[in-house]
Amino acid sequence: MGIEGPFWRAIAVFRVASLVYAGILLIQHDGYARPALGWLVIGLMALWTAASIFLYSVDAVRGWPLLVIDMLVTVACLLASPYAQGRFQFAQGVMPLPATWVAAPVLAWAVYGGRRLGAVGAAIVAAADVWLRVRTPGAPVYLNGAVLLFLAGVVVGHVARLAKQAEERMQRAIEMEAAQRERDRLSRGIHDSVLQVLALVQRRGQEIGGEAAELGRLAGEQEAALRDLISMRPAPSGDLRTLLTRYGSATVTVSTPATPIVLPPATAEEVAAAVGAALDNVRTHVGRDARAWVFAETVDDTVIVSVRDEGDGIPDGRLQQAERDGRLGVAQSIKGRITDLGGTVTYVTGPGEGTEVEIRIPAGESA
């Protein structure tokens, strides 16, 4: 039940207290036209109070069918008031037969669906009460109860929604803390084994020279990348900056702002994948040792990511020819991904000037 548990228990207490209050009002007033019918309605209210308290406590049952039935039972008891009270119902200061018990489904709707659903529940109950009074000639129409129902539904719904959001944030914080503890545990093991081996390979490779020196250089790059990986703290979900930083190496320089570049998680993953595809193209067509630069920034409501290399550039028509030949790396891995996200991809290249891939993605909710 989580954070909602106290709300449902409070509503259960409210139902019982309101039921007792309705019974006391029926005992005090002896001017009802049909007291027996009044007690029959009170009995129905008591049965539904017991049933609803149990049903709302079961997570699998709590949902729209129960909410609708709760509202129908309440409105039925409210509409039975004129038949039990007769003309006495419209005397000054006399409440309908269910009295404050009619607010219970409004509170239930508010806790379940927030302030908007609470307002809808209040409107239904208030409309039934006003209809009873309007249909009787000469009966006074009071809106005080409708206003109080509306305020109760909106306020309780708002508080319940805030409580749910706070619970979700706390759960995410707990998960991040657990992930960090696991990361720290793995970091200690990696530091004592893998990093030491990579450092030894790098040092010995440089001492031996030749092909071993190349292996040593690669080992040094992997050691640096692994140290960066295990030292990173959990980042906000959808932080593009963190995803791009993982591409950094001895040949790839990644420049990002100091603050997170937050996008919807799926969007951030797709943009990072497109950048990875662009870097793969650099290694394939320019060389594994070619230098590349990744730059990311946010301008107004647009995230701009560029990937630049030091190659000889792309000849005119080369991309179109590759697409016609069925080589769809650029068309699908880069342009296809970004186009599906509502963004654009621009290639800036020239003979001997290298190639720059510029990716633009909307940073707002449209992303």
UniProtKB/TrEMBL annotation:
Keywords: Kinase, Membrane, Transferase, Transmembrane, Transmembrane helix, Two-component regulatory system. Gene3D superfamilies: Histidine kinase-like ATPase, C-terminal domain (3.30.565.10). The keyword Chloroplast does not apply. Residues 1-168 form the DUF5931 domain. Residues 273-363 form the Histidine kinase/HSP90-like ATPase domain. InterPro entries: DUF5931, HATPase_C_sf, HATPase_dom, Sensor_HK_TwoCompSys. GO terms for molecular function: kinase activity. The chain crosses the membrane at residues 6-27, 39-58, 64-81, 93-112, 141-163. It comes from the Bacteria. This is MacS family sensor histidine kinase. It comes from Nonomuraea typhae. The gene is macS.
